[in-house]
Specification:
Blueprint lengths: L1 H13 L2 H20 L6 E7 L3 H17 L2 H15 L2 E5 L5 E4 L10 H10 L11 E11 L2 E11 L2 E7 L2 H38 L14 H57 L5 H31 L9 E4 H18 L2 E6 L6 E4 L1 H18 L4 E10 L2 E9 L5 H5 L20 H11 L3 E7 L2 E9 L10
Parallel strand pairs: 8-10
Antiparallel strand pairs: 1-6, 2-3, 2-5, 4-5, 7-9, 10-11, 11-13, 12-13
């Protein structure tokens, strides 16, 4: 359960570029936090501070003028007030050490000035890490009633607690951001490299390098983009090759038209010129030459019609008019219409029609043209006397139509190119054999999303056509 959960999370992250970059940020922050830990240590320190002799002497210097100016009975009141306010003990002593007046919290009656000075010189005023009980003394001499007196102050304390932090927060911030940026750049380097490759690839494709293919790494948006760029390159390459092929076909078309039209046209002009120039020709000779010229003209017109038809159906804007028809019914009608012509050319017709009507969405006029061209091809190139066999069957969702006729041996290389413009099984390329008919057949099959192939075996030339068909239950006669 847990494994499936993590696998699900992994696949989601792998398929989302946004999730990956969020993860990179989190990992970079974690790495930066770990790296900054030694530098981010800020220690809390406690120190206990004690009053210094100088501080106490300053207090004494403030009190002595008050004592000098006050009447004797007020001195005790002044010392009590100042001692209570400052938390100290105050004593007024003579030169001999007799305590003349003291604050209420002081108990000494005799204090030797020399000993006090010795104690002051030895007392510790430095701060400590732990609280310590200390009594800090200070002494201040002054004239009182024309004699030197001493004002002694002392303060008992365990130290004033002060807390402070030790560390360098600025260094911690700098280290955090440096580590974050370095780790983030390392983690995103592969993705950025992929993006750069995609950008460079698009630039190369824009320059005409349609053979370029990008690496489709991962399952995220970059891989998705790379796959689409590769598909775009394949489509552009196919379109480019198609344009080159079409350009070559145009060139071949112009060359072939020039060749195929020049011969019959020259013959027509020759026979008409002969009729025009030779006045001694008999009526029978003139009729003979006129018939030949007429026949050549008809062949020329047929060739022009085929060229026009091929140009029409190969145009990008051409749209077939599809409707539901029965292929078997259409073939039967065509065989009935061409039966006399086949018999006249000494070709025995054999048909093997399957029971399935082979209904298909097709353009009936185009299919009529296709089958008519194949029948005409059999009449032109088939051996006579001979056979013409047509077989239909249903196979894997396709209607399969096989048209066979007895024929002479044709080179295998030519069979592979029979459906190209101006290619025939006869290398002599006479004026009656333009080689356009099979190209029209191939184009019509392509318009119907079908397949066609030419096979030669056992003295028979067979054209196998496969057209997509629909279910028999949906068939309705139109």
């Amino acid at each position: 359960m847990i494994r499936r959960f993590f696998e699900k999370i992994y696949h989601k992250i792998a398929a989302s570029l946004r999730a990956q970059f969020i993860l990179y940020i989190l990992i970079s922050m974690l790495a930066a936090a770990i790296a900054v830990e030694p530098f981010a240590y800020i220690n809390q320190e406690k120190r206990y501070y004690y009053p210094s002799r100088d501080e106490l002497e300053m207090e004494l210097k403030k009190i002595t003028p008050l004592i000098q100016q006050a009447p004797p009975r007020q001195i005790r009141f002044i010392l009590d007030e100042k001692a209570e306010a400052s938390g100290t003990k105050l004593r007024l002593i003579s030169q001999k050490g007799t305590v003349l007046v003291r604050s209420a919290n002081a108990t000494e009656q005799q204090m030797n000035p020399a000993q006090i000075l010795m104690k002051i010189s030895q007392q510790n005023e430095e701060p400590s890490n732990v609280p310590q009980f200390r009594e800090i003394y200070a002494i201040h001499p002054f004239y009182f009633h024309h004699q030197i007196h001493y004002l002694v102050i002392s303060k008992e304390t365990h130290g004033r607690l002060t807390t402070y932090w030790i560390g360098n927060p600025l260094l911690s911030v700098v280290v955090f951001f440096l580590v974050f940026i370095v780790v983030y750049l390392i983690l995103t380097r592969r993705k950025l490299k992929q993006l750069q490759e995609v950008t460079a690839g698009i630039s190369e494709i824009a320059k005409g390098n349609f053979r370029l293919r990008l690496k489709e790494q991962g399952k995220d948006e970059i891989a998705f983009l790379a796959a689409h760029v590769n598909e775009m390159a394949r489509q552009l390459k196919a379109n480019w090759e198609k344009e080159r092929r079409m350009e070559q076909e145009r060139t071949d078309l112009i060359t072939s038209i020039s060749h195929d039209l020049r011969t019959p046209l020259t013959s027509v002009i020759g026979y008409l010129k002969l009729i025009h120039d030779q006045s001694q020709l008999t009526p029978d000779e003139m009729k003979k030459y006129a018939d030949i010229a007429l026949s050549k003209s008809k062949n020329l017109k047929q060739m022009m019609d085929q060229l026009f038809e091929f140009t029409k159906i190969t145009h990008d804007q051409f749209q077939p008019s599809f409707q539901l028809i029965s292929l078997n019914e259409l073939i039967n009608q065509l065989l009935e219409g061409n039966h006399a012509m086949l018999a006249l050319n000494e070709m025995d017709v054999e048909r093997i029609i399957c029971n399935d009507p082979l209904q298909a969405q097709a353009d009936p006029f185009l299919l009529i043209r296709m089958f008519d061209n194949l029948i005409q091809n059999a009449l032109k190139y088939g051996k006579k006397p001979g056979k013409f066999i047509i077989v239909t069957k249903q196979e894997d969702g396709y209607g399969v139509i096989k048209l066979s006729n007895t024929a002479g041996q044709v080179d295998r290389q030519i069979i592979g190119r029979l459906f190209q413009m101006f290619v025939t099984g006869d290398p002599s390329r006479s004026e009656k054999r333009s080689g356009i008919g099979l190209a029209i057949v191939k184009r019509i099959v392509d318009l119907h999303q079908g397949q066609i192939a030419a096979i030669q075996e056992n003295g028979m030339m067979t054209f196998v056509i496969k057209l997509p068909i629909t279910s028999s239950r949906s068939f309705t006669r139109r």
